Hints:
The chain has 393 residues and is an alpha/beta fold. The protein has 2 domains: 214 residues, Rossmann fold; 116 residues, no CATH class. The chain has 18 helices and 7 strands. α10 crosses α14 and α14 packs across α17.
Amino acid sequence: xxxxxxxxxxxxxxxxxxxxxxxxxxxxxxxxxxxxxxxxxxxxxxxxxxxxxxxxxxxxxxxxxxxxxxxxxxxxxxxxxxxxxxxxxxxxxxxxxxxxxxxxxxxxxxxxxxxxxxxxxxxxxxxxxxxxxxxxxxxxxxxxxxxxxxxxxxxxxxxxxxxxxxxxxxxxxxxxxxxxxxxxxxxxxxxxxxxxxxxxxxxxxxxxxxxxxxxxxxxxxxxxxxxxxxxxxxxxxxxxxxxxxxxxxxxxxxxxxxxxxxxxxxxxxxxxxxxxxxxxxxxxxxxxxxxxxxxxxxxxxxxxxxxxxxxxxxxxxxxxxxxxxxxxxxxxxxxxxxxxxxxxxxxxxxxxxxxxxxxxxxxxxxxxxxxxxxxxxxxxxxxxxxxxxxxxx
Length: 393
């Protein structure tokens, strides 16, 4: 049996990959590829999917691929919203293992209602024993957080597949792009943070979010014979995205006619993320959440410079970031056999043309012209009264 472990990293298209595996799990299972559920809600959804899969119309749709009715179904499934325990079953497993095994980890609110990790692992084991697949796929960006000091948790996962041929696939994003994206992701979930340029970066130096070696250490220690496939995110995008790249490097044979296109997590422009950051600090949780939702659906970003052209670090911090990252980069090259691992890494030292304070001030001025789409009074008042000085010219 083959076991394919997609262990992240974060912000590399893992949500699109998980949607692809979830929505195609019946077709994959017919091919002998198991994408296992880990909780009761997932098993119930599996039963519903199995019933639908055997209806005559669904059997016809398999032959249509992504034409006609198949294309309509693909679009409908891509918009479907499942509970997190169903949509991200292996995130749920990883979070549960971490929350039970370490005091510093708390189970996210959106993964409440999970059974004990022992039962979740038994659920996976039962599916493997009953279905006897040729291959099993576990995919979670949260697995990266189990990479250092969590060998016992990783061993519990590895013990599900004695004697299996294991391939570990990990994707890493260039460090300056990654940390900016991860910081904004945390802001979207309500974290109270300092700007990256004003101390916010300090929290990341000794974590998997900066030292990518930590994301791999535990997995390599527990599974030393596993094949390690490391991919730069730029190459993943060039290959067609996380789904296409995973299919290409997994070593598995996928069936025809799979649904491949899904809406990825919407990103928040750095200027709007800065407004959300200030709201997280100034407002109670509910109005802060209302503000973030308003910013997420706002069209204000359309008139702003592209996110890639907004400077969130500053020249000095960019130099420090690159200098600290060089040993990590060298290790990635040794592990992957790719030298350099990130082509053009030195460009991370280049300062972007538009300072964040300047762009955030422009975004705020645009938003303040019309706040009718923001029903929460406290959030609306916050934006009305907020003043941001533009960067000095």
